[in-house]
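pasting for ref. prot 1 ->
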Amino acid sequence: MKQIAVVEDDKFMQEELKEILQKAGYTVCLIQCFENVSEQLLSDSMDLVILDLNLPNISGFQICREIKQKSAVPVLVLTSRDQMRDELHALNLGADEFLTKPCRKERLLARVGNVLKRYEGRANLLEGADFLLDRQTYTLYIHNQSVILPKNQGKLLEAFLSSKEETVTKEELCIALWDTTEYIDENALQVNLTRLKKTMANLGMRQKLQPVRGVGYRLTMEGETDEM
């Protein structure tokens, strides 16, 4: 049974969505606390997130950005905001669908079903800002092309995309490459990271590798500060 998280602060709308989705055969998780929402969503194995944009303490745009940078879970935005710029912004952040309230339940369920169908068979795929990585074959799908990464580059990129923490430590990267923390070969690690950086630049990826001094590295969007 597919599990759907509902991120909505209006109690009436929460219960209405819960009833509609449960009657359609889905398991529903209502997000009740709007602190660390992204962490809640990433820690649970959800098949879909239905996300409002107007939330207390945090913007739905920020939540969308955070979960799409770290997960391949699909996001359906359901909001009262009906401006084209809001829809385009959400889609550019990685949202898979955008619906405005009020919305007929038939339309909502149709969009939910379509999104879930599109994601069937994608359990092995990790999602970045504008690309997908097959964690079994290390095939990178970007800009309507597919590129098979060298094994070590694929392992490193998988480590960044699957980490629940923003920064991936050098130890974690070594485990990804060599399955051990008995030693950290700084030179070998740096060589592999440099090769991955070059590949990402050549493919025009919007996410870059950024060093976090004394700790490790993290994926950042193009234009963010280069070093911490």
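and prot 2 ->
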Amino acid sequence: MSSSDVLTEAYGRLPDLVHGAVEGLDADQLSIRPGGSANSVAWLVWHLTRVADAHFSEAFGHPELWQAKGYAERWGLSLDPADTGYGHSPEQVAAVTVESAQQLLDYFDAVQSLCESLVAGLRDEDLQQVVDERWDPPVTLLVRLVSVLDDAVQHAGQAFYARGMILAADASD
């Protein structure tokens, strides 16, 4: 099994996690911030998708789907189109809302499809290529892909947890 096969398997698990966290929730539920200040499901999934979109774009030299395919314009968020959510204030988190679960999943699915196709075509030697020299040591493609995956899995888990809190609160009303 090659490194690409392992990465393909790992990235291929994300859709079940993300769809499981999002499907069946309406726009209001997706925007609920458990405890009044936690990240919403909408923000968590938007953020993990924006991070993947931005990092894959930079590493593979293609435009971000967020802007190139018009998602930023259609979503109409009051954020800079280059914003990925890193370091967001509570007000910025609250600004990330969706009209529907489908809106959130359409963007995620588009980015996920691109990520999976790019990872599937990699050779082991490609993974040693330096993609970011701003760090010491410089970041290789393998390190970047693992970092993005790690971030996505953590945020998908948080979205699933937030979903459970939201549904439990709804059940008790």
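Residues 141-172 form the longest helix (32 residues).
The radius of gyration is 16 Å.
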